[in-house]
Specification:
By secondary structure, this protein is an alpha+beta fold. It has one domain (3-36, 56-285, 299-482): Outer membrane efflux proteins (OEP), CATH 1.20.1600.10. The protein contains 9 helices and 4 strands. It has helices at residues 3-20, 68-80, 82-102, 125-130, 160-226, 232-266, 301-321, 367-433, 439-473; strands at 108-119, 140-155, 327-338, 350-359. α3 runs antiparallel to α5 and α5 (160-226) runs antiparallel to α7.
Length: 514
Amino acid sequence: MSNRAFRSLAIVCISGVVLLAGCSVGPNYVQPAVPEPTSYKETAKNWKKAHPRDEIAKGDWYTIFHDAKLNELESEAFGSNQTLRAAIARVSESRAAARESEAAFFPSLDFSADGSRQRTSPNNGQLVAQSPGGVGTAHTFDSATVVPFDLSYELDIWGKVRRAFEAAGDQAQASAADYENVLLTLKAEVATTYFAIRTADSQIDVQRRTIKSYKDNLDLTNSRFTGGISTLLDVEQAKATLASAQSQLASLQENRAQLLHALAVLLGQTPETFSLKENPLNLNPPIIPPGLPSDLLERRPDVAAAERRVAAQNAQIGVAIAAYFPSVHLTGQTGFDSGDLGLLFNWESRIWSYGPNIQFPLFEGGQISANVKQQRAAYEENVANYRQNVLVAFQDVEDSLSALRYLAEQQKAQDVAYDAYKKALDLTNARYNTGLVSYFDVIQAQGLALSAEQLDVQIRGNRIASTVQLIKALGGGWSDSLITQPNHGDHVAAPSAAPTVLGPDKPLPAAPKN
């Protein structure tokens, strides 16, 4: 083929490439439809269509509890929690993978050089056949090649590289959303565990006060027995009641110790190095109104991550389909080649080549079609996972809203019950002192009053925990200005947070300290 014909063929190939440039095979991404209830079951107002918006900053919502120790623990967990470290590393890993796939948009340029000194065998059959008299001659010679520019570039005619980069970028965004989910979960777990410890402190405080009361009763019963007023049965019953209360105290202390160990691990510490001063729970949960706007559901990072993985898998279908079509590589190289090192860089020693390389699959045993089916099935799996995440998000919010509503009702009723049991205990003690009832009646009244007070404390702790879970279910982001504190009114304005994107091209959060 003449130089003119070859150049004409190259021009035709390049022109065809230019015409096909921008063509990407495979389906373009369309966000899958998800269940869209018209309202919460717990509240039928302030609802609008939701779209995942994980880029909205979650904020330090835990400050709404106005607890300096909680704020300190949350900051420590952010700096030292190992699960969060792993999530940050995964974000870095996925972003690096996206940048790696981006490199396929550019040509590769290599440098190569090789040299050798060789000797041929005189007994080589080909040399013997070519030599007069059938006797071969040994030859020794040098060879050196330097190729400073060896270029290779795959033309992205069918969009395979673009689809791969698209998938990598979506995966990077999913990893960023995963990080946000880990961070949100960590904040909620620290808050929940901390308030569970304070609830345990309240229960321990109640139990200790009750034990002191039981000791006083035992002393009184012993005095009455010595004076011939009470019986030995009353004394033994008082001892048994005291011992039972002491046993319950040990159980409550064991529960607190285990909660303390769990909090230490969340903070990235070993349990033996961590301690927390007892601090009984003495606060009411801030009131989060049930008429929340639905855009807070858009803040769910797990929903955002699931949606991004759907988009990434959709792009992988295009990558698989592109294998049906020919791949075109442009190659070129220039350098020097010589058998004499002294003449290696002479102009006459120059070498060069350029041209296209086209590969077209003729038969691959159904491998490509099988891969396309696999990628489509994986896409359907991701769609189902995404829709399931949306359903779970609605469930989490509904569960937390209903828990708060019914716990408030339970608290109100339990307060009445506890007051009644305390009055009943006072009346029973008075009747016992006048000999109208037996000590068994006192024990019953004491047990009922203690159970009522402990249940009252537990309900208060559950209300705080449910408040934390509601904020987590809504994706976080609550601030003090948007929360109604107890007895401070009922209306809360809808938040208007400015989006702060955490995507593949945005900086990572600060790395945790060592």
